[in-house]
DNA sequence: CCTGAAACAGCCTCCGC
DNA sequence: GCGGAGGCTGTTTCAGG
């Protein structure tokens, strides 16, 4: 899908706040509310906007600890990787997962209540996935940027 | 803020889709639309819901490459760390940034158009931050889980 | 592809429970 | 605290440029 100047401005606004009224949005980007609304629908239908979500505070729901875990697998065979991705999808402690090149094969972002829950997670997850060669845990002390906002040229 | 069973169900629903009508939400959690609506407002006001955002496809806006970059700083002095966090906030290529313990000091999630843009970013960013001791790039080949959905007990 | 008006849906305030 | 009725705000459709 082709994006023009207005689409980009709209995306930039809604990726920060998707509860703006189309009127406010129109003001922001210099279009009528109706036009914005039509463009938004198109952007959603085309999958340019993948989802509309509320960001929930992990602390507020009792899971204040974030961990980044880098994982190496025994082999890079594609069925092993696919099986591992399956396991990721089924594991609720995992917020985000990246399959990467470089020092690790996967990097996971984990959200847990405390070290007890984290230890339980590692035991279970690594027991269930015998292809894991090794892993390294980094405890997140602070997240400076929160969401997944993409840089958008205008 | 105290969260009951219903609040948790609401959070679990809206962190996947915040465009449900209060009616649909009510159906889902077993309350009236009005009650959901009241609870949602409270959750937003209390900061349990930190933000409401649209997730934009990096590919669709022309920045299909994601990189995870782990960074080590020369020293762990707090003013160095604060200065570094400042720099992060000002840098639009950085989607997320975590200050961590362990193998690295920071882990950044970077979103760029191509390797050319990435190289320009590293040159600039590392030139502007002389306290960086070293870094390691992992190119993201696939993201298995996208958003920041937290596990919520019900 | 834009704007503006009119019909419609969903939200929110008030009130009784 | 919950749920229902109504006014109100925002969205959507439609006509015209």
Automatic annotation (TrEMBL), chains A, B:
GO MF term (any one): sequence-specific DNA binding
UniProt entry tagged with the keyword DNA-binding: yes
Domain HTH asnC-type, first and last residues per copy: 3-64
Keywords from the UniProt entry: DNA-binding, Plasmid, Transcription, Transcription regulation
Domain of life: Bacteria
One GO BP: response to amino acid
PROSITE patterns, per the entry: HTH_ASNC_1, HTH_ASNC_2
Entry's Gene Ontology cellular component terms: cytosol
Lipid biosynthesis recorded as keyword: no
Name the record gives this protein: Lrp/AsnC family transcriptional regulator
Lineage: Bacteria, Pseudomonadati, Pseudomonadota, Alphaproteobacteria, Hyphomicrobiales
């Amino acid at each position: 899908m082709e994006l023009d100047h207005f689409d980009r401005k709209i995306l930039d606004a809604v990726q920060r706040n998707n509860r703006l009224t189309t009127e406010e949005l129109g003001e922001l980007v210099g279009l009528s509310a109706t036009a914005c609304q039509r463009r938004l629908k198109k952007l959603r239908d085309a999958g340019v906007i993948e989802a509309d979500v509320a960001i929930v505070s992990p602390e507020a729901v009792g899971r204040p600890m974030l961990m980044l875990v880098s994982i190496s697998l025994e082999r890079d065979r594609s069925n092993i990787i696919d099986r591992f991705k399956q396991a990721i999808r089924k594991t609720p402690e995992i917020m985000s997962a990246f399959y990467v090149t470089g020092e690790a094969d996967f990097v996971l972002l984990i959200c847990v209540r405390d070290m007890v829950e984290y230890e339980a997670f590692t035991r279970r997850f690594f027991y269930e996935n015998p292809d894991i060669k090794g892993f390294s845990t980094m405890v997140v002390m602070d997240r400076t940027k929160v969401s997944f906002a993409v840089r958008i040229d205008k």
